[in-house]
Amino acid sequence: MTAAAAQGGGRILVVTTTVGSIEAAQALARRIVEQRLAACVQLETGLTSLYRWRGQLHEDAEARLVIKTIPGAEAALQALLAEHHPYELPQFVATVAQTSTAYAEWVRAEVALPAADAPGSTPGS
């Protein structure tokens, strides 16, 4: 029995970010899943965000990405968003979530950490 199973569930990392269109959300979600930095990315549309940016009040339509991953993938996911997110300052809100054991195991099985981020890896190996 795994430690997660002994505790009656598992934990994953849920990250949210927003973009200005469904097309941008789909492209970013596809890149994240194809690079195996998340098991699943859900897209939510119909959002309106009110925010201050550079001293001005803005109100914009947005789409939200809800990214299901593991804590060990956080740095690689942040790097991907820094490089490919369309916003100058992308939202990156990460929360540890308690899930069923089976769901957490599925997420862990689908996420593949880059070699440099994998537990037990050493630089240059």
Produce the secondary structure layout.
Blueprint (H helix, E strand, L loop, with lengths): L2 H4 L3 E10 L2 H13 L5 E14 L2 E14 L4 H11 L8 E7 L1 H10 L15
Antiparallel strand pairs: 1-3, 1-4, 2-3
Architecture overview:
- The protein has a single domain, classed as Alpha-Beta Plaits, CATH 3.30.70.
- It is α+β, with helices and mostly antiparallel strands.
- The protein starts with a helix and ends in a 15-residue tail after the last helix.
- It is built from four helices and four strands.
- Helices cover 30% and strands 36% of the residues.
Question: Outline of this structure?
Answer:
This protein has one domain (16-111): Alpha-Beta Plaits, CATH 3.30.70.120.
Largest sheet: 4 strands, antiparallel
Unreliable runs: 4-8, 121-125
Please tell me the total number of domains: 1
Round the mean pLDDT to the nearest integer and report it: 90
Distance between the termini: 31 Å
Number of helices: 4
The chain-level structural class is: alpha+beta
CATH first level: which class? Alpha Beta
Query: What gross morphology would you assign?
Result: globular
Calculate Rg over CA atoms. Answer: 16 Å
State the helicity in percent bands. Answer: 25-40%
Supply the CATH architecture.
2-Layer Sandwich
Number of strands: 4
* Sequence of secondary-structure elements: HEHEEHEH
Strand order of the largest sheet: 2-3-1-4
Output the CATH topology: Alpha-Beta Plaits
Strand content: 35-45%
